[in-house]
Amino acid sequence: MSELLAKSRNGALRQWIHNQHALYFSKYSDRTALIGAYTVSVSHDVSEYAKGISAPVLLVTADRDEITPMAAQIKVRELLPDADMVVLHGVGHLVHYERPLETAAAIRKFLTAL
């Protein structure tokens, strides 16, 4: 899955991302557990709860995210009463792997402003 989600052309980075996913997300006891976890993960999202979240929220999003397309990200932003949104360009769902410095800078700026 990580091979499809990563948008970087950097082979070493793509391999590292794949290794991280293999290490931390491959511990399911069997195929049924894996399918169940996947089904739950794609059947629900934060939009179900967004209106009830009153705390400030930062959405770090990506313009090439195939799991959560930009239109869905904008919809979530509109549902949250107090949200900022940062869009990272040229990356997909794995922004924290592909753009860690930009992701950290956005989080730092958001937290400093609180």
From TrEMBL:
<dbReference type="InterPro" id="IPR029058">
    <property type="entry name" value="AB_hydrolase_fold"/>
</dbReference>
<dbReference type="InterPro" id="IPR013595">
    <property type="entry name" value="Pept_S33_TAP-like_C"/>
</dbReference>
<feature type="domain" description="Peptidase S33 tripeptidyl aminopeptidase-like C-terminal">
    <location>
        <begin position="50"/>
        <end position="99"/>
    </location>
</feature>
<protein>
    <submittedName>
        <fullName>Unannotated protein</fullName>
    </submittedName>
</protein>
<dbReference type="InterPro" id="IPR050228">
    <property type="entry name" value="Carboxylesterase_BioH"/>
</dbReference>
<dbReference type="Pfam" id="PF08386">
    <property type="entry name" value="Abhydrolase_4"/>
</dbReference>
